[in-house]
């Protein structure tokens, strides 16, 4: 039993190897495209077919078998495995077609543009012979097209075939008992192999069994023997040495180390459905494919023995479409002008009776023989070259109109032939004097009663050797022409100067090669050196006759030194200047005298030079003045349009600065970004009636709810247009419409967030603190004008210069939702991480909720652009804030700066500082930046723990563990997050709150007298660092706070000592982190949450 298994395994292995070898060494042959038409007798057709398809495995084209008798032997078709076009079996009498190995019909071309398999009228009329079985026992797939089987009188088993398993989407005798399903015939070896309809649902294509694990590879077509891409019967796309691949190895591959495209040593070209290392000789390489002709914008060139399609340097050689299509069957008087100046014919050339003598039914007149001289420019025919002439002008005795034809590619053949000349009574010689190569196909010359010289041609010399082995023999079928003996008797022989390779006609210019020498395509007896003519001997160059113009014995025109020239040099640049010469009587060029000025007086030359200089200077001055005038007019226009003027004549009292713009005045250039409320573009504003182009930023507001229209100017738009402050982005204009467009100043330096991320290593404390001051002042200006921002973040702060920032995107939410003061958001674009807790929970937006966002913005700046709560999803942030967690202290901040942020994040909005207080606080800090921000020199600095966004709450320390550093202006070494418990106790500011907490919570606070300022005023004896009026002047003209002028060393020492005493007071009071004292003030107390989450003005704390 073991031995039997080994034998079976060996058989399977040999079968697989045989199949692999068959795939890697395919024998390819060309198909036909004759449809139902035939040429010649039945025997001629059969002979041609047998020669074309014997041993063939892949038919590159169509397989057409028509009008064959019942006794013909078609066993030579058994080797065909694949047909790329269609199969036509029509009007035959044989009983069975032995295409047993055929597995796939690709259907790249379809019969009647519909069918990939057509079996028509295959029976003998009034006889007993006809097609009984198709014999396609291994056909498993038709990629494109359908099946047509009609009028086959004796065909019985076709309806038994499951065509749904073969094609993509067609009363008979029963099949043999051995067949479990459909069949192709009556025998037990004609059972149909099913590879599609029996597959498991998991298989996307074909299969080799019913199990889910028995699916064919996705690149297989027609079935397989295993799951690998080498087990396919045929390939769906390309066959690469036995493996089915989606595409052949490309000629260029990307090198990820050098970041360049480099030649692929394993590159192959696409030839039909096969990957080949070299294209056939009769094909040309275009990129990574073998094509029959180059596209119109490329020309065919040969490099290193390979024909390639290369882009034309200028105008491409004219390539014309040949004949053979239904609308262009022959060359006639109506289409012959389309061949003027053609150098290449893409296709075929047919000369038929209807073209030569005319076609009265189609109103086509007879062809003028002189018109045929148009074809003298043709040098190459890429398709099949057919001269199937039933009539030819009697005045023409040869085919000399094709005297310049050099190559017949033969990329498509007519029954294996690429040159056919037949039945031309007046033809005495071929006259194809320049024809030197027939790349593919045979020669068929017959029925020309007067034709001579054809028997002298060495036809095998014209067939070029291919780098790819060709199976088909080159047929030379020259018969039934004038006998050679008769031609010799009549003197129709080659010229004596021709070699033994033959000639195309009489005369020395019709030789295939010369016996002695050749000059201009004509054979000569000797080389005439004295005439200087260029000659060659047997295609070998004669060097003595190929030298330049300096070797001539006698010059035809003039001589300049040793060279023959057509004219003497005039004004040619030489080593010592311009050279002028004149011809003497001996026709030699002599130099002009040194004082000669080429016949022109010196005064004229000087005046001409001066005129040119003056005109050049005038043009230059005028262009400079013109450009300067344009620049001045542009500046005046921009100043006029950017000046402050009312938006509407009736709104002069409101000082509205923006304008009403029209849609046609705005041009969007580039998308800068998108956000919650819409998108922003870089664009230009071209005022109506003017040509000035003003660069602006265009913000398009989109209302995703569909509740708002912006066709009218609202009060809120007027309010936004009236704002003008150095720290906010000014609104230049409003463009109403379906989508509101706001036109603002264009910031070329981008947002503050991008700037601090990109230049983090070069930022200094002074600049950071001044930016905080400027943002606070800008927000205070918005607060004075009752404008709530709702979306304050570092990304919405723009840089006007390196030292000045401006706030943008203010008031947009009020434009969208002016009634309910709400806007809807999604998880991706909503600024939840910047929003106050009352805004998240109750959607209440006030200036104090903007203070919360201001604190997050300052945290972004101090963390060099880190994302807040980066490790958390937006929906998790409200729960984190309710638990009392806050963003951690940035590494560069001291406790003073950090506590300002913490005050901005207080739950009670009335306890948060106002923007005026924040501006004053950061102004004070900006006067001594190193005391509040500690920035060390970083080398390859990376974000610290501040980028984590938050840290979990930690238990408080008891009194014995609390140790405060000697100086308050130092960094907080603890990395813990400030929770609401630490907001209430354990810091300097918390002591201020603890003195009068109950009273501060019971009374209503105004924005001008916030809890933050009240707490600072209660500690005025300890901290008297609020800026005094005389220190407000310590700013430059742009509002930039100057450092080091407001604090003296003595004042700093006093503050340190007073702060140290304050810290000891805190320790003695026993109010430490986590102390139970002050329970009402603890945000960890659930009762506090119920009573003091959001205090109303009339709420009283108990």
UniProtKB/TrEMBL annotation:
Q: How does it sit in the membrane?
A: Single-pass type I membrane protein
**UniProt keyword terms in alphabetical order:** ATP-binding, Disulfide bond, Glycoprotein, Kinase, Membrane, Nucleotide-binding, Phosphoprotein, Receptor, Signal, Transferase, Transmembrane, Transmembrane helix, Tyrosine-protein kinase
Query: What EC numbers are recorded for this enzyme?
Result: 2.7.10.1
Reactions accelerated catalytically: L-tyrosyl-[protein] + ATP = O-phospho-L-tyrosyl-[protein] + ADP + H(+)
Protein kinase domain location is 666-923
Tell me the leader sequence span.
1-22
Q: Which GO terms describe its cellular component?
A: basal plasma membrane; receptor complex
Chain sites annotated for binding ATP = 699
Q: Which family does it belong to?
A: Belongs to the protein kinase superfamily. Tyr protein kinase family. EGF receptor subfamily.
Task: Tell me the protein's name.
Answer: Receptor protein-tyrosine kinase
């Amino acid at each position: 039993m073991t031995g039997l298994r080994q034998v079976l395994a060996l058989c399977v292995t040999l079968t697989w190897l045989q199949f692999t070898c068959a795939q890697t060494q395919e024998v390819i042959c060309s198909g036909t495209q004759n449809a139902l038409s035939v040429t010649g007798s039945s025997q001629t057709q059969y002979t041609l077919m047998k020669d074309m398809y014997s041993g063939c495995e892949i038919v590159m084209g169509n397989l057409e078998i028509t009008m064959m008798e019942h006794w013909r032997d078609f066993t030579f078709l058994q080797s065909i495995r694949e047909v790329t076009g269609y199969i036509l079996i029509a009007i035959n009498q044989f009983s069975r077609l032995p295409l047993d190995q055929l597995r796939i019909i690709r259907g790249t071309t379809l019969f009647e543009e519909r069918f990939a398999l057509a079996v028509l009228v295959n029976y003998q009329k009034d006889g007993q012979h006809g097609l009984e079985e198709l014999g396609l026992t291994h056909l498993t797939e038709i990629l494109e097209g359908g099946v047509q089987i009609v009028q086959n009188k004796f065909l019985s088993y076709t309806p038994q075939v499951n065509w749904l398993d073969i094609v993509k989407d067609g009363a008979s005798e029963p099949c043999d008992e051995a067949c479990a399903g459909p069949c192709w015939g009556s025998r037990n070896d004609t059972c149909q192999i099913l590879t599609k309809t029996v597959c498991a649902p998991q298989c996307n294509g074909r299969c080799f069994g019913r199990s889910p694990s028995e699916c064919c590879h996705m690149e297989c077509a027609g079935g397989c023997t295993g799951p690998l891409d080498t087990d396919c019967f045929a390939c769906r796309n390309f066959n690469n040495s036995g493996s089915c691949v989606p595409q052949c190895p490309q000629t260029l591959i990307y090198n990820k180390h050098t970041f360049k495209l480099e030649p692929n040593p394993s590159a192959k070209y696409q030839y039909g459905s096969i990957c080949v290392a070299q294209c056939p000789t009769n094909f040309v390489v275009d990129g990574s494919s073998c094509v029959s002709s180059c596209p119109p914008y490329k020309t065919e060139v040969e490099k290193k023995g390979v024909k390639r399609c290369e882009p034309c340097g200028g105008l491409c050689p004219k390539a014309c479409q040949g004949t053979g299509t239904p609308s262009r069957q022959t060359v006639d008087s109506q289409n012959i002008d389309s061949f003027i100046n053609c150098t290449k014919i893409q296709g075929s050339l047919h000369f038929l009776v209807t073209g030569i003598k005319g076609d009265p039914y189609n109103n086509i007149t007879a062809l003028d023989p002189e018109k045929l001289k148009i074809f003298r420019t043709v040098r190459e025919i890429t398709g099949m070259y057919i001269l199937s002439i039933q009539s030819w002008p009697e005045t023409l005795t040869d085919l000399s109109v094709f005297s310049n034809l050099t190559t017949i590619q033969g990329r498509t053949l007519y029954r294996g032939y690429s040159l056919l000349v037949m039945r031309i009574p007046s033809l005495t010689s071929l006259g194809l004097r320049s024809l030197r190569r027939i790349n593919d196909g045979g020669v068929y010359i017959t029925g020309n009663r007067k034709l001579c010289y054809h028997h002298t041609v060495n036809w095998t010399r014209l067939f070029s050797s291919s780098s790819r082995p060709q199976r088909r023999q080159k047929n030379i079928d020259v018969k039934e022409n004038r006998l050679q003996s008769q031609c010799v008797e009549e003197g129709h022989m080659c010229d004596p100067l021709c070699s033994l390779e033959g000639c195309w006609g009489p005369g020395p210019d019709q030789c295939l090669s010369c016996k002695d020498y050749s000059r201009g395509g004509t054979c000569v007896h000797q080389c005439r050196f004295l005439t200087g003519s260029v000659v060659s001997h047997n295609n070998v160059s004669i060097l003595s006759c190929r030298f330049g113009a300096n070797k001539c014995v006698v010059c035809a025109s003039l001589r300049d030194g040793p060279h023959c020239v057509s004219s003497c040099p005039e004004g040619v640049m030489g080593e010592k200047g311009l050279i002028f010469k004149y011809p003497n009587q001996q026709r030699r060029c002599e130099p002009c005298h040194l004082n000669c000025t080429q016949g022109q007086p010196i005064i004229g030359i000087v005046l001409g030079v001066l005129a040119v200089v003056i005109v050049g200077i005038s043009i230059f001055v005028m262009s400079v003045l013109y450009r300067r005038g344009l620049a001045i007019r542009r500046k005046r226009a921009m100043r006029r349009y950017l000046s402050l003027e009312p938006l509407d004549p009736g709104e002069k009292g409101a000082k509205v600065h923006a304008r009403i713009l029209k849609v046609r005045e705005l041009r969007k250039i580039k998308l800068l970004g998108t956000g919650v409320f819409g998108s922003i573009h870089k664009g230009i504003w071209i005022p109506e009636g003017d040509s000035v182009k003003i660069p602006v930023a265009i913000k398009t507001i989109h209302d995703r709810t569909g509740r708002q229209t912006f066709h009218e100017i609202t009060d809120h738009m007027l309010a936004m247009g009236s704002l003008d402050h150095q720290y906010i982005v000014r609104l230049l204009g409003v463009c109403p419409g379906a989508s509101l467009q706001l036109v603002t100043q264009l910031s070329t330096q981008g947002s503050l967030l991008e700037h601090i991320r990109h230049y983090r290593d070069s930022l200094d404390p002074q600049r950071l603190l001044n930016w905080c001051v400027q943002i606070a002042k800008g927000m205070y200006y918005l607060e004075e004008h009752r404008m709530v921002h709702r979306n304050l973040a570092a990304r919405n702060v723009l840089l006007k210069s390196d030292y000045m920032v401006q706030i943008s995107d203010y008031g947009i939410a009020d434009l969208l939702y002016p009634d309910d003061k709400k806007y809807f958001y999604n998880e991706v674009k909503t600024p939840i991480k910047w929003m106050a807790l009352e805004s998240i929970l109750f959607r209440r937006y006030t200036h104090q909720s903007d203070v919360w966002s201001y604190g997050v913005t300052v945290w972004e700046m101090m963390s060099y652009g880190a994302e807040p709560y980066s490790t958390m999803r937006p929906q998790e942030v409200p729960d984190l804030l309710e638990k009392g967690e806050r963003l951690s202290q940035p590494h560069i901040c001291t406790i003073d700066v950090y506590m300002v942020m913490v005050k901005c994040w207080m739950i009670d909005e009335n306890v948060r500082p106002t923007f005026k207080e924040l501006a004053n606080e950061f102004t004070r800090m900006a006067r001594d930046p190193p005391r509040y921000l500690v920035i060390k020199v970083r080398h390859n600095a990376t974000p610290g723990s501040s980028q984590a966004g938050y840290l979990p709450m930690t238990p408080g320390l008891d009194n014995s563990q609390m140790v405060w550093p000697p100086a308050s202006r130092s960094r907080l070494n603890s990395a813990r997050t400030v929770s609401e418990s630490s907001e209430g106790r354990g810091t300097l500011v918390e002591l201020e709150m603890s003195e009068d907490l109950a009273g501060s919570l019971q009374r209503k606070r105004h924005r001008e007298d916030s809890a933050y300022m009240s707490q600072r005023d209660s500690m005025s004896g300890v901290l008297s660092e609020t800026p005094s009026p005389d220190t407000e002047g310590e700013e430059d003209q742009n509002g930039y706070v100057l450092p080091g002028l407001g604090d003296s060393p003595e004042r700093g020492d006093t503050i340190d000592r007073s702060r140290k005493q304050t810290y000891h007071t805190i320790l003695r009071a026993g109010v430490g982190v986590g102390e139970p004292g002050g329970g009402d003030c603890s945000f960890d107390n659930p009762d506090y949450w119920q009573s003091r989450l959001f205090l109303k003005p009339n709420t009283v704390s108990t």
